[in-house]
Amino acid sequence: MPQAAFKRILLKLSGEALMGEDSYGINRAMIERICGEIADVVNLGVEVGVVIGGGNIFRGVAPGAAGMDRATADYMGMLATVMNALALQDAMRRVGLSGRVQSALNIEQVAEPYIRGKAIRYLEEGKVVIFAAGTGNPFFTTDTAAALRGMEMNVDIVLKATKVDGVYTDDPKTNSKATRYQQLTFDEAIVKNLKVMDATALTLCRDQKLPICVFSIFKAGALRRVVLGEDEGTRVHA
Q1: Contact 64, 26 (CB under 8 A)
Q2: Quick one: how far is CA 77 from the chain centroid?
Q3: Each residue of 25-82: pLDDT tens digit?
Q4: How far apart are CA 188 and CA 99, in angstroms?
Q5: Number of domains into which the chain is organized
Q6: What is the crossing angle of helices 28-42 and 70-94, to 10°?
Q7: Domain presence at residue 2
Q8: What is the pTM of this model?
Q9: Which residues contact 28 (CB under 8 A, 6 or more apart)?
Q10: CATH label of the domain that carries residue 131
Q11: N or C: the chain end with fewer CB closer than 10 Å?
Q12: How many CB atoms lie within 10 A of CB 79?
C-alpha cells in the first residue's frame, strides 16, 4: 500500500462542489464520486475531517440575500451546510464509510453538537467527521471554519477543494498564459491577494503554521495524489 504523506487531514468542500454541472442543489453522481475519493484516502489509513459549505443552497452574501439582515442571512447559510452535511453522510454510507455529522448550531434531532473531544475520538476510530454550520457565528466564512476546525483537530494540512487545480498567477479561464504556483508562502499569498482563502482563514493558518493545499475536486484522483504528497494543486506554507 502506498504511504500517505499525512496522518490527519481537514478537507474543505464548497457547497458548489456538490452541484456538479447543475445550477443548484446536490448532484447525486457528483456527491457519490466525492465520497468515493474520500474512501480511497481513508483506505490509506488517513483520518479525515470535512468542513462543508452551503453555497449550492443559500449563501449569506449572495444576490438572493440582498436586503436581508446579514446575520439572519448567514444563519440561513449555516442551515444550508447542515443539509449538505446530511446528504454527504448518507452518500458516505453508500460507499462503506462511517460518517458523523457535528453541527456548530444545536439541532440535536438531526446532528450531534460539535464536541471537540468526541470529534477527535471519531477520527481516531477511522470515522469521517463532517463539521456543519461553519463556526456557528455569522460574519465568518466556511473557509474560516475549516482553518479553525483544522487547528482544533490537530490536522497535518487543510485541503481546499475547488473548481481549479491550484492557485494561478491570473485567471486561467481568461488568460491562457496564467501559470500554476506549485508552492507559495502565506506571506506571498496575502501580499499578492491570490484568494487562496479569505483573509481571516489565511491569517489563522499562517499564525499556527498549518499548511494549505488548493486542488480541484473535479479532477479524478486528485485528492489521493495530494495525500500521497505528489505534485497536485498548490501548497501554501509558512
Answers
A1: no
A2: 15
A3: 999 999 999 999 999 999 999 999 999 999 999 876 666 677 889 999 999 999 999 9
A4: 36
A5: 1
A6: 70
A7: no
A8: 0.94
A9: 91
A10: 3.40.1160.10
A11: N
A12: 17
